[in-house]
Amino acid sequence: MYDGYYDEAHQYMHGGMGGAGSFSETFRCYSVAMMPTRSERPELLYGGKIVMPQSALTKLSALHISWPMLFQLTNPAHERVTHSGVLEFTAEEGRVYVPQWMMQALLLEEGQFVQIKNVELPLGTFVKIQPQSVDFLDITDPKAVLEQALRNFSTLTEGDIITFKYNDKLFDILVMETKPAGKGISIVETDLEVDFAAPLGYQEPAPVARSTPTPSLIGSTTRIAEHTIAEEIGFVPFGGSGQRLSGKIPATSSLNTTSGANGPPIPAALRLPPGKLFFGYPVVPLKQKNTNAEPDAVSATTFTGQGQTLKAARRGGGTGSSGGGSASGSSGPSSSGPK
């Protein structure tokens, strides 16, 4: 079985071990889906770290490479470059396994050669990213989700499209800009400021045209015409007429209750909540007097009872007593007077 092109002659042809303290090797590159012992680990499938052989660890240790170990991956055929960290040293000799998004960034096919060398990258302070789908806007807390996803990355390279998984869905993110400026930055143990660009394909909502506001009523924000229920039942606010105690018909009120915008202000419109019906207020008009009746007939039916007084009997008794005394006085002299 052929496990890859990896020997001393090959190393020398591609630059060998390089200078002192420098690691530079060429391996056959495969995606992590080709690993014999592949497991569904997110840090392996959707991270920014690679799997190298055990011999690479031995050489790196001999060169006293400091941690974290950061590498530059180059595809000489297409002059494509990216950066990564290392996850583990369990790959077969002569092979290196990288995430699928890294294969696409380097324009590599399964089994093609990739050159790997150790590098030192500055600690990043700022990165600007752009989601490649508007589905990214459906994430409730994108900042927290992205922070969790970047824990599986050691480096970020400007121009790369990285991939992470959230809620069983894959999201692609374009690294648009990094600071300090350069091809790559380290994001290990650093405070990184993240700026989000509008997702690819996102369109601003069209502005809603506002209609010209109509004059509103005093004490109300709507017009009576807007209350269709009032129109259906024929409701007119304060549509009755006034009544006077004298029975005379009052003059027409100067307040026009149905006037529009040019007339005087009218009371607030009837407001009904949805699902409510208005059946009108009961109107009980006052009974008007019969102005066509004759005065005698009117007076005949007025005060038809008989009054009573406490002095009535006393007045009657005094009158009878006076009459009797007069008769007695006239008869007295006739009987007792001289003849």
From TrEMBL:
Cellular component GO terms, alphabetical: VCP-NPL4-UFD1 AAA ATPase complex
Q: Which domain of life is it from?
A: Eukaryota
Which portions of the chain have biased composition (kind: Polar residues)? 298-309
- What keywords are annotated for this sequence in UniProt? Ubl conjugation pathway
Provide ranges: composition bias, Gly residues.
315-327
| GO-annotated molecular function | polyubiquitin modification-dependent protein binding
Q: Where is the composition biased (Low complexity)?
A: 328-339
Q: Which GO terms describe its biological process?
A: ERAD pathway; ubiquitin-dependent protein catabolic process
Q: Which Pfam families match?
A: UFD1_N1 (PF03152), UFD1_N2 (PF24842)
Question: What is the designated name of this protein?
Answer: Ubiquitin fusion degradation protein 1
